[in-house]
Design brief:
5-stranded mixed beta sheet, elongated, 428 residues, 2 domains, Alpha-Beta Plaits, alpha+beta
Length: 428
């Protein structure tokens, strides 16, 4: 009974101090909370490997049942009241910090150690044992933290009105998983008996109940903001694993530095894939190649900085006018391209909308600014992106030669009969 009461008081003290630091995060910064959370990790591991007390249901370590369980609940609190991009900071910080510790210990072992006057020497074997247990425990914590958040959100679909049940079930399930994983390593490293596993599991289930109760009480009494509705598991997982940063990097790599549009390399990659998909499915695909009229004169009259501003303005306008299924590229200089899953008539309408929008926008206070464009639509006579681009580019040339400020696409049957030369060499 004495040990049980002490464990309960330790849990209350741990939770109380940590939520005070969390509550003060707007004033002192959340970094204080994170540092306090992290420095306890060594004590958790040390106690879990060497410090046990006897309870009626088995042998228990305060490091595992009180401190580790509390840390997991604290990470869930950060997610609930902040977001996934915030909670991943301590998760990854602990993982990399302990990996660094192992690396430094390996270097420390290479020293020629000078004994103290008393003859005392460092216990390197203990440091090794602790180090590997810390890395294993941190790895488990990394997995546990992601699992408890995903499980908490998943349970929100069924237990949205019962915050206590969501927290308790997610905490109990993840602590069970953690107990299996950590005891396995502990058993092989320190020879911990199986009584430690069962005693630790019972203690962690009790910790889950106590911490869940305190967490719900804290949220309802101290945090005024409501708990958000359940979110998509895919989005949360991407944020927790930094995948959204990876996706953003991939997106940035394919962007033109000046306009932010996709660049020529991405156009060629996407275009070949779209052509192949269109030929296989029979769905329409059109290409609009457009060019800013008399762009060289803008650079000559106003300077290249103004010319760059015009290009950026055109890029913004193209993104605004293009539909959600259309993709806009800067293919070089003042030339742009739009890949759109539309037949010729719809693509031509899009081209005309772009042309009118440029004239109406009075880009960079240049009322005379216009664009010309050529349109080509995939057909049986085109088998690659280069074929499609060649046709659209030839029609762009025709638009330029015909006086600019116009869109040239595939001529209708009536236009071909009246002007046979319109279709010469176009093959589309």
């Amino acid at each position: 009974m004495h040990n049980s009461l002490l464990l309960f008081l330790e849990a209350v003290a741990y939770f109380g101090v940590m939520v005070i630091l969390f509550r003060l995060r707007r004033r002192i910064g959340i970094g204080v909370f994170f540092c306090a959370l992290s420095v306890m990790h060594f004590l958790e591991t040390y106690l879990a490997s060497a410090f046990y007390v006897a309870l009626p249901f088995g042998i228990v370590s305060p490091g595992s049942s009180v401190l580790f369980s509390g840390k997991l609940v604290m990470l869930l609190l950060v997610y609930m009241k902040e977001d996934a991009t915030t909670v991943r900071q301590p998760i990854y910080g602990l993982l990399f910090g302990n990996a660094l510790m192992i690396g430094l210990v390996l270097l420390l072992r290479q020293h020629d150690i000078a004994p103290l006057p008393s003859g005392q020497r460092p216990d390197i074997a203990f440091i090794d044992q602790m180090g590997w247990l810390m890395v294993w425990g941190t790895t488990l914590l990394f997995v546990d933290a992601i699992l408890i958040i995903l499980l908490y959100e998943r349970l929100g679909k069924y237990l949205r009105k019962s915050l206590f049940a969501r927290i308790l079930i997610s905490t109990a399930c993840v602590l069970t998983f953690d107990q299996i994983g950590f005891f396995t390593a502990l058993h092989f490293v320190t020879g911990a008996p199986y009584e430690v596993f069962f005693g630790g599991w019972y203690a962690k289930m009790g910790a889950a109940l106590i911490y869940s109760t305190m967490l719900v009480a804290y949220i309802r009494w101290a945090e005024s903001h409501p708990i958000p509705a359940p979110r998509g598991l895919g989005d949360i997982f991407e944020m927790l694993t930094y995948r959204e940063r990876y996706e953003a990097l991939i997106q940035h790599v394919g962007r033109d530095g000046l306009t932010g549009l996709w660049h020529r390399g991405r156009f060629e990659t996407d275009g070949e894939q779209d052509v192949a998909a269109s030929l296989a499915s029979g769905k329409p695909l059109s290409l609009i190649v457009l060019d800013v009229d008399h762009f060289k004169s803008i650079n000559d009259r106003f300077g290249h900085a103004e010319g760059d501003r015009v290009l950026r303005s055109i890029a913004i306008l193209l993104r605004d006018v293009a539909g959600p299924a259309d993709r806009v590229y800067r293919t070089g200089g003042e030339e742009f391209a739009v890949l759109c899953p539309h037949p010729q008539a719809v693509a031509r309408l899009l081209g005309e909308n772009i042309r009118h929008a440029v004239k109406a926008a009075n880009v960079a206070n240049l009322s005379e600014l216009t664009i010309s464009a050529g349109i080509a639509t995939l057909s049986s006579s085109t088998s690659s992106l280069s074929d499609l681009f060649a046709i659209a580019d030839q029609r762009l040339y025709t638009a330029k030669a015909s006086g600019r400020d116009r869109i040239v696409g595939e001529p209708s049957a009536g236009e071909q009969a009246a002007h046979p030369t319109l279709s010469a060499g176009h093959g589309n």
